[in-house]
Amino acid sequence: MTQDLHIIGGGMAGSEAAWQAANMGVSVVIHEMRPKVETFAHRTGDLAEMVCSNSFRSDDHEQNAVGLLHWEMRQANGIIMATADKHRLPAGGALAVDRDPFAQSVTAALMDHPNIRVEYGEISELPTEGHWIIATGPLTSAGLGAAIQNETGADALAFFDAIAPIVYADSIDMDVAWMQSRYDKGDTEAEQKAYLNCPMTKDQYEAFIDALLAADKTEFHEGETAGYFDGCLPIEVMADRGRETLRFGPMKPVGLTNSHKPEDKPYAVVQLRKDNALGTLLNIVGFQTKMKYGAQTDVLRMIPGLENASFARLGGIHRNTFINSPTLLDEQMRLKSRPNIRFAGQITGVEGYVESAAMGLLAGRLAAAEILGRTLNTAPLNTAMGALVHHITGGADAKTFQPMNVNFGLFQPVDGLKGGRRGRKDRYKAYSDRAKIDWQHWLDAQSEE
Question: Which interval of the chain is the signal sequence (predicted)?
Fold first, then answer.
């Protein structure tokens, strides 16, 4: 057997990295500090636990870069995507999952793999020998975070990630709310009715904004700064940017018709989505918040249909750290100062479950190839995975580096296609077609070795 690959962190990235490397014949050890060392956001000791949304976002692999990343991971036999498909919930054009069975299935599959073992306990120092992947995610322990800071000689960047509340479905007034996906999107009735909608009049919206702005908020500790990632802004931060911001964000009323009052056009709409297969829990879409618990219940019960809502989980906020990857990592995702260590997942400055798992997939394959004495180039630039890893390992401006979702703005232009909104559909399809060819070639070259 080859020498071990050690992976610190059993989240999305660590789980996917372990699966990929183990399937290449490498012996893998996952070092997971939970449940011995808990975090504020996690509830269990399961691997690949989902702590924020239960959505992997768009599954459209022709017109959406996230969906294209889904496609690439499926082609690479990714455990995260295969398990997500197994525990899929109706969510319009999105891929949402039943979070607890999802994490339990990933954990069972990794535990059962003959090339993988899991060791529980915290690692707080950077290893000097062996092959390692650090995939500790947004909640890297204080000890390991300090060790990373000491090694890189740079301050770890930080922002705050906010968690959306979850509501018990049977506490919602269905005489007010109705089920409908925006623009009735989806091929089945379940997909077309994947969201629960709560309408607001102009007066109700204005009163809600007033209460939101006046509510007690979580205070930050001395020395901490609130540099939010725009894809996960707390609702009160959005409201503070302008009274209409939420109406053009998560509360936009377009593409919806109130089945109770078809002639009434809502001024704003709050949407909720299934958080488990039974449909007993719903999360409030885009409603990450840093309001204190007492204020949350008061403000959220101002939403029509949620006047008597019971909450399975209230929103929260936590620190999220990531390294300045463009200056610290090489194209193989190795720490330049210690090339026996790779980084993967959200700590590298990617944002989202899918992006984190994708970076784990790539790091796992690169590390395994190195252990096996093979030469494996990183993902092709014109693929979704390649565009993302290129961004974090050199494509982004290190001075302004911030967490990034995968998006077509990271892709190289296709010659002969016009820009602008009118040409977007053809352009995105061309990006996707090109990526699929390049990705399949990359995978095929590995299978031929």
Answer: none
Binding-site residue ranges for FAD: 9-14
Task: Confirm if 57 and 232 have CB atoms less than 8 A apart.
Answer: no
- String of DSSP letters for 381-401: TTSHHHHHHHIIIIIS-GGG-
Q: What sign does the CA torsion over 182, 183, 185, 188 have? A: positive
d(CA 65, CA 325): 21
Domain segments of the chain as ranges: 5-156+323-447, 162-319
Q: What topology is assigned to 162-319 in CATH?
A: Elongation Factor Tu (Ef-tu); domain 3 (2.40.30)
- Collapsing DSSP to helix, strand or coil, 139 comes out as helix
Q: Under CATH, which number does the domain 5-156+323-447 receive?
A: 3.50.50.60
| Averaged pLDDT for residues 281-305 | 94
pTM of the model: 0.80
Judged against a pLDDT cut of 60, whether residue 224 lies above it is answered with: no
Find all residues with CB under 8 Å of 177, minimum gap 6, and list them.
196, 197, 198, 199, 272, 304, 305
pLDDT at position 368 is: 98
Name the burial class of residue 144, with classes exposed (0-12), middle (13-18) and buried (19+) by CB atoms within 10 angstroms of its CB.
Answer: buried
Neighbour tally for 182: CB within 10 Å = 18
Condensed to tens digits (0 to 9), the pLDDT of residues 106-130 reads 999 999 999 999 999 999 999 999 9
Annotated binding site: 9-14
At residue 365, φ and ψ (nearest 5 deg) are: -70, -40
